[in-house]
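INTERNAL AUDIT FORM
Audit reference: QA-55
Scope: verify that the stored structure record matches its stored sequence.
Auditor: D.O.
Record contents follow.
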Amino acid sequence: MMVAMTDLTLTGSVDRSAAVEATALVIELLGRPEVAARWDDESACAGMSVGALAWHLVNQPQRLVEVLGAEPVDAEVTTLDQHYVRSAWVVEDLDGPANVGVRTRGEDQARAGADAAVSAARQALDAVGPALAAAAATVALPWAGWALSTDDFLVTRLMEMVVHADDLAASVGVETPDFPPVVLEPVLTLLTGLALRRHGQDALVRTLTRPQRAPGSISAF
């Protein structure tokens, strides 16, 4: 049975300190010598170098600070559920405009090198806490044309950091950062809800409890 996105509530409580903890772990990963050594190699994300993927990780806390600090504008506030229903990159293939744009931006940024990526992430870490403390209840997403609650927007950035930290670690053969529950819980709630919408109840339950009847994938995206 497929479940409509409107039947799900993905929003949950989120501790805003999670952004600081996640960013700190991302910085540790970015500073690994293995990352710099394989900077120009292709990453675990097809068509994207290790350097581009590293900068895409840096962009997540940067984007958090940028959006939270922007001047408020009138925009329709949508749910976290609908944010992913309406986001172009979710339904595009790897050659879709949104996904090509992410790769192109990352490759352009990667020219600055690994040390610059670590430095930029540290600057974002210094700014994340104050930005969250001063944030309004909702924030507009200029690239999307709608707004989210601040907590929901934070969850989107946490998800990006958790998922792409694993991508980067796999790309260079090191351990994935061990994110604490304050980071993982809202991310897993989001990903589970998206997987349920995409694949349905039976696929999700069987994968978690009955692998002999499970489908090949319950990917959230």
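Auditor finding: record pair retrieved intact. The longest strand covers residues 138-141.
Action required: none
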